[in-house]
Design a protein that fits this description.
The complex is a heterodimer of chains A (125) and B (132). Chain A is α/β, with parallel strands linked by helices. Chain A has one domain (6-118): Transcription Regulator spoIIAA (2-Layer Sandwich). Chain A has four helices and five strands. In chain A, strand 4, helix 3 and strand 5 form a beta-alpha-beta unit. In chain A, helix 1 packs parallel to helix 2. Chain B has helices spanning 12-28, 33-52, 86-90, 103-109, and strands at 4-9, 57-65, 70-78, 113-119, 123-131. Chain B contains four helices and five strands. Chain B is α+β, with helices and mostly antiparallel strands. Chain B has a five-stranded antiparallel sheet with strand order 1-2-3-5-4, with helices on one face. Chain B has a single domain (4-131), classed as Heat Shock Protein 90, CATH 3.30.565. The chains are: A alpha/beta (125), B alpha+beta (132). Chain A binds chain B through residues 20-24, 53-58, 60-61, 83, 85-86, 88-90, 92-95, and chain B through 12-13, 15-16, 19-20, 23, 33-34, 36-38, 40-41, 44-45, 48, 92, 99-100, 102-103, 105-106, 109-110.
């Protein structure tokens, strides 16, 4: 069965969602990611959606669920790379991803997480 | 000249296929990127409803023209249990399943024209149109 890869980047996990996801793949990702958070003790998760040309309520719900699950496992989620057309559509759809932090790029997302854990974007406390 | 195409929707894999098909049609009709994204997202919501609540059905894509503008109309039809209370089904946050309850209302907001016909026990037909 196909899977979405989860990369470890220092103290964070990075998931780049590239394929046109169907429902089973989304479920598999939630399982894989929560297992990786628990095993690695990662404190932050970056979900890169820059390749997604649309986010519907199903994918939106998945993102919200991942953020909630991660929070319970003591990790923060940042969604990065949302395309402008996707942002416009998502808000019109009625989904503004409450409780999910966002950043424009992976770099900015990592800065955001480092700042929230260490007080500075370069990791020194 | 108008064109049309009908596809079955039975599984979540078909939802992905319908999305790709709608994207290709919207690009061919010259829709802006934002308009493409809106109609593809609306199509995704409605196609998923067809699978989850209607037990599968069909999607029909057709081009329209009112003399001035070109439009893309999508119709989703199933022979499922139908909707008892249309106003309630359109209300944001209401769901009879496990979703967020944004599908129908969201698809309506993302479209220029919206039509919902449903009879309990007979099925549901939803049509949306986006004009260029």
């Amino acid at each position: 069965m196909e899977r979405i890869p989860i990369l470890k980047m220092g103290e964070f996990l990075l998931v780049t969602i590239q394929v046109d996801m169907h429902d089973r793949l989304v479920m598999a990702l939630q399982e894989d990611l929560t297992t990786r958070i628990a095993d690695s003790g990662a404190r932050g998760v970056l979900i890169d959606i820059s390749c997604l040309d649309m986010v519907d309520s199903f994918i939106g719900r998945m993102i919200g669920n991942i953020a909630a699950m991660s929070r319970v496992l003591d990790a923060e989620t940042v969604v990065v790379g949302m395309r402008p057309a996707v942002a416009i559509t998502l808000v019109e759809l009625g989904l503004s991803l409450p409780g999910v932090r966002t950043a424009l790029s992976v770099d900015k997302g990592m800065d955001l997480l480092r700042t929230s854990f260490h007080g500075t974007p370069n990791g020194a406390s | 000249m108008t064109e049309h195409e009908t596809r079955p929707i039975r599984s979540s894999a078909d939802v992905v296929i319908v999305r790709q098909l709608v994207r290709a049609w919207a690009i061919r009709l010259g829709f802006s990127l934002v308009d493409q994204t809106k109609i593809v997202t609306a199509a995704s919501e409605l196609a998923r409803n067809t699978v989850d609540y209607g037990g599968g059905g069909i999607a029909r894509l057709e081009t329209l023209s009112d003399g001035r503008r070109i439009g893309l109309r999508l119709t989703f039809e199933d022979k499922g249990p139908g909707i008892e209370d249309l106003a309630l089904a359109l209300k944001d946050g209401y769901t009879s399943g496990g979703g967020l309850g944004l599908g129908l209302g969201g698809a309506k907001r993302l479209s220029n024209d919206f039509e919902l016909v449903s009879k309990p026990g007979e099925g549901t037909r939803v049509s949306i149109t986006r004009w260029r």
